[in-house]
Amino acid sequence: MTPNQVTLARILVAFAAVALFSLGTHVLALDLTAVFLTVAAIALDGVDGYIARTCGLATPFGAKFDILGDRVVENLFFTCFAASGLISLWVPVIFFARGALTDFLRGLVRRSARSNLDQNWMLKTWWGRSLVASRTSRASYATLKCICFCCLGCLLPIRHMPAARSAEWLREAGTTWLLTAGQAITFATVIFCIVRAIPVVWEGRRYFAPRSKAPKAVPVVASR
Description:
With 224 residues, this protein is mainly α. The chain has a single domain, classed as Four Helix Bundle (Hemerythrin (Met), subunit A) (Up-down Bundle). 72% of the residues lie in helices and 0% in strands. It contains 7 helices and no strands. It has helices at 3-22, 28-54, 60-83, 90-110, 126-133, 135-159, 168-203. Helix 1 (3-22) packs parallel to helix 3 (60-83), helix 4 runs parallel beside helix 7 and helix 5 runs parallel beside helix 6 (135-159). Residues 114-118, 163-167 and 217-224 have low confidence and may be disordered.
């Protein structure tokens, strides 16, 4: 498969996972399938880049399509969970605004960059590369989102389970624990999302600064 096909598959897998989470069925196999698809959607984020680098298939379109895939997947899951009442509506709003701002700045800088294939062309500082481009940061961010999506996704079928009298306390305890854990992980993911945007905004701040006016040219009078 090409990197672009992997990115497209990642988006489709994410849609399938959200669809299964939203069914509200009591079939354990479907719930486990939704969790598996969620993990697969996050894991495929690194597969397309690996194929592009090792097989020499990196293209400017592929780089932009990969970023688009990231935005679609994360906003899809967070919007679904916000619509279900599990998290605040501000969570998908923050992710959408953060993604729009950073992508806008990257688009401005990309015009003057030497290579459109370099994902880190605007990260000039060491701390910016550490927060955004390092393998540790990327892996930690992907893992955090995966745990967050799986935890919140498991709440949807549990919340709609029939409350049998003998197991009602167990269901309520499990729901409360998962909800607390899900909201805590969501908060951590939002903070991590904002922190990783700081280097991009910092290095793109020059586009928000007022430009100094160029001095007017003084006409030169030729002397005889």
